[in-house]
Specification:
22 helices, mainly alpha, two-stranded antiparallel ribbon
């Protein structure tokens, strides 16, 4: 709920209308709802004059109500274009990286969990060409496995999110990591596309649950002032997983085969499972769980009340994450195939392109995550969207391998720069009792909407080939489709970030116990 506090100095002191409006200050109330209580804007003060001409009290009320509605609805948009608060200084990043042993260990497990999820996911995108040859299919048929994975992730986000919010994050995380390790191993034994897609469907459910678990664990234990830079580091674990997948592909597939890539990639997951056995629940979750147990309301009633109070926020988060996921998957998933099929580069060169792009992603995610503590979450995303759109031509138009590498680097700096803000942003706008469910489910519902990104690019590229033939065969024009899609999505992200809200610096727990730093 947005409250209106009128700071009138005297009951009968005539004022101009602009002065009256300036006396209205907007402050977020404790329950953080998304609506304005019209009853709170009624004036109880004396006569107001507009440019020296007295107006009726009814006219004043109506005009003030419209002005105050505009301020409460769009003030956050106007704030986006103001200078950052000069009191909010950029802090030394080295100092922000200092954590207690418990904080560092918990954050490391969250990062590793997201990295191994990403590693498994990108094993499919790296081996799209090899899978198509092994199963005698087109690359667009193989990308259906990616689509299925993305479509089923919301189920995992909802299932594991509810369990984590009610019973803790630790056990669900261990179960999640253990199950998808088994699925990854089994994927290497698939003998046909149908079996492979079935396994990736199960994996999609598990992948959907992991992000919400890891993100809530990490954000709840981190210091508030360090949340931005660690948000970038956490999300860049996804790019690190992509980078590791590319390196393993380069080392394993040419020398063994694509199946060995899936078998060997379970090693990091096994290490993460062992580490997660030593995790502790966060104080923020313990406090939230204590409040739930002492409440007379059932969990169902809590959910219904949250949806009634924050339904606009929920819808916005899903739409925003759909745009962000289109941006990420549209710029990454088909890129190795684009280099190999459209430009005819060797698999090793495609691997180099992926590595360079992910290096840019890691740099951008960490840098812009850090900068968001000064600029704000939304302003940082807007900057990334505007500058990133300018690099789309460099990313897809050149024929030179070196220039394409430069484009891949810079496009990912800004794509993943925007993504580096997301873990902190979603955690901060999340209702207190749903910090595992809300971020994870909105993220994965956005993934569901964007699930067809790579398949759209592959299918449209194959249906609209390049005019010239290569060895008597048509060549898909993946680059043009990717460029158009990403250009549109950058614009969508820009608009959604401008009209969104943020709660940077939100506290997740009321007080700490003396042994928190153990």
């Amino acid at each position: 709920m947005v409250s209106i506090n009128e700071a009138d100095s005297a009951a009968n002191n005539p004022r101009t209308f602009s002065e009256d409006i300036r006396s209205v200050s907007l402050t977020p109330s404790a329950n953080n709802a998304d609506f304005v209580d019209e009853a709170s804007i009624r004036s109880e003060k004396g006569p107001i004059v507009n440019e020296g001409i007295p107006v009726s009290q009814g006219q004043v009320h109506a005009t003030r109500r419209r002005r105050i509605w505009f301020q409460t609805t769009f003030s956050h948009v106007l704030e986006l274009f103001e200078r950052p608060d000069p009191r909010n200084k950029l802090k030394n990043p080295i100092g922000l990286l200092k954590l207690t042993p418990r904080q560092a260990f918990t954050f490391s497990v969250a990062c590793l969990g997201w990295m191994v999820d990403s590693l498994d996911f990108f094993c499919v995108t790296m081996t799209t060409t090899e899978l198509a040859e092994a199963f005698d299919k087109e690359p667009s048929d193989i990308t259906s496995a990616i689509t299925v994975t993305l479509m089923l992730r919301p189920i995992g986000a909802l299932l594991f999110g509810i369990i984590a919010d009610r019973y803790g994050r630790r056990i669900p995380l261990i179960v999640n990591l253990s199950l998808f390790t088994v699925i990854e191993l089994a994927s290497g034994f698939a003998q046909n596309l149908e079996t492979f897609i079935g396994l990736r469907a199960i994996y999609g459910i598990l992948m959907g649950g992991e992000w919400g678990l890891g993100n809530s664990l990490a954000m709840e234990v981190l210091p508030v002032e360090s949340r931005g830079i660690f948000s970038g580091i956490l999300q860049m674990s996804y790019s690190l997983g992509n980078l590791v997948a590319a390196m393993l592909y380069y080392a394993i597939v040419p020398n063994l085969n694509w199946r060995a890539l899936y078998w060997i990639s379970i090693i990091p997951a096994a290490i993460t499972i062992v580490m997660s056995l030593f995790l502790k629940e966060s104080e923020a979750w313990k406090q939230s769980r204590h409040q739930q147990r002492n409440s007379a309301r059932t969990y169902y009633q809590v959910v219904v009340d949250m949806l009634k109070q924050h339904w606009i926020r929920c819808i916005y988060a899903v739409i925003f994450m759909a745009a962000m996921n289109f941006l990420s998957h549209g710029s990454q998933d088909l890129y190795p195939t684009f280099l190999k099929k459209q430009h005819g580069f060797l698999p090793a060169q495609a691997t180099v392109g992926t590595v360079v792009g992910n290096l840019g992603a890691i740099v951008g995610g960490i840098f812009f995550g850090y900068i968001s503590e000064y600029l704000g979450r939304r302003r940082t995303i807007v900057i990334c969207a505007v500058i990133g759109a300018c690099f789309v031509p460099l990313w897809i138009l050149p024929n030179s391998f070196g220039v394409l590498l430069a484009g891949a680097f810079f496009i990912q700096v800004f794509v993943q720069g925007a993504w580096g803000v997301i873990p902190a942003y979603l955690a901060e706008i999340s209702p207190d009792n749903f910090r595992a469910t809300f971020p994870g489910l909105s993220y994965q519902l956005g993934n569901l909407i964007s699930a067809s990104a790579s398949q759209i690019e592959a299918t449209m590229g194959e249906k609209n080939p390049l005019p010239e033939l290569r060895d008597g065969e048509t060549v898909p024009n993946y680059g043009r489709v990717q460029g158009i899609l990403i250009g549109i999505i950058f614009c969508c992200v820009l608009v959604l970030a401008v009209f969104g809200r943020e709660e940077k610096g939100k506290q997740f727990e009321v007080k700490k116990k003396p042994d928190d730093d153990d």
